C-alpha cells in the first residue's frame, strides 16, 4: 500500500489562510465611489469652484487695497459735501462739537469759520448749529 502525503510548500497556502480576499461584489461602496458624475454635475461643481475662487481674489484685493492706503473716499480730510446740523447739548462748545465730528482733524479752521458765521462762540443748550460743508 502506498501512501500519498502533501505538505505546504512554495505557492501552496497553509491552513488557516493568512489573508482573505472578499469577492468583488461584496466590497462596500460609498455614495460617490463607483458612480459616474454626469456632465451637468461636473459643470455645476466647476462653476461653484470658480465662484469661490473669484470671491477669494476679491477679498485678497480688498485687503491689499486697505493695506496699501485704503480707499480715497475714506480719507480723514474729506467731509460730506452737504452741510449738517448739530443740536448743542448742555456744556457743549464749538470746539467740542467740531472735535467730536472730525476727531482726526485740526478743529481751529472750522471753529473760526463758525464763530465768524454766528458772530459769537457761546452756545445755548438745544440750539441748532449748521456746520458748513
Written account of the structure:
There is one protein chain. It contains 3 helices and 2 strands; from the N terminus they run αβααβ. It is mainly α and 133 residues long. The radius of gyration is 41 Å and the shape is rod-shaped. The mean pLDDT is 75.
Q: What distance separates the N and C termini?
A: 123 Å
Structural category: mainly alpha
Task: List low-pLDDT spans.
Answer: none
Order of strands across the biggest sheet?
1-2
Question: Radius of gyration over alpha carbons?
Answer: 41 Å
**Overall 3D form:** rod-shaped
Q: Report the mean per-residue pLDDT as an integer.
A: 75
SSE arrangement, N to C: HEHHE
Q: Biggest sheet, open or closed, and with what strands and sense?
A: 2 strands, antiparallel
Number of helical regions: 3
**Helix amount:** 25-40%
Key structural traits:
133 residues, 3 helices, 2 strands, single chain, mainly alpha
Overview in brief:
36% of the residues lie in helices and 6% in strands. The protein is mainly alpha-helical.
Question: What's the helix and strand layout?
Answer:
Elements: H1 39-67, E1 84-87, H2 94-101, H3 108-118, E2 128-131
Antiparallel strand pairs: 1-2
Amino acid at each position: 500500500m502506498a501512501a500519498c502525503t502533501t505538505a505546504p510548500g512554495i505557492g501552496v497556502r497553509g491552513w488557516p489562510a493568512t489573508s482573505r480576499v472578499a469577492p468583488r461584489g461584496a466590497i462596500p461602496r460609498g455614495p460617490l465611489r463607483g458612480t459616474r458624475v454626469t456632465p451637468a454635475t461636473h459643470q455645476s461643481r466647476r462653476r461653484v469652484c470658480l465662484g469661490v475662487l473669484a470671491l477669494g481674489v476679491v477679498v485678497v484685493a480688498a485687503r491689499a487695497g486697505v493695506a496699501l492706503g485704503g480707499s480715497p473716499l475714506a480719507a480723514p480730510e474729506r467731509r460730506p459735501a452737504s452741510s449738517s446740523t448739530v443740536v448743542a447739548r448742555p456744556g457743549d462748545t464749538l470746539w467740542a462739537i467740531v472735535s467730536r465730528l472730525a476727531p482726526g482733524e485740526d478743529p481751529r479752521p472750522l471753529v473760526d469759520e463758525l464763530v465768524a458765521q454766528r458772530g459769537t462762540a457761546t452756545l445755548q443748550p438745544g440750539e441748532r448749529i449748521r456746520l458748513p460743508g
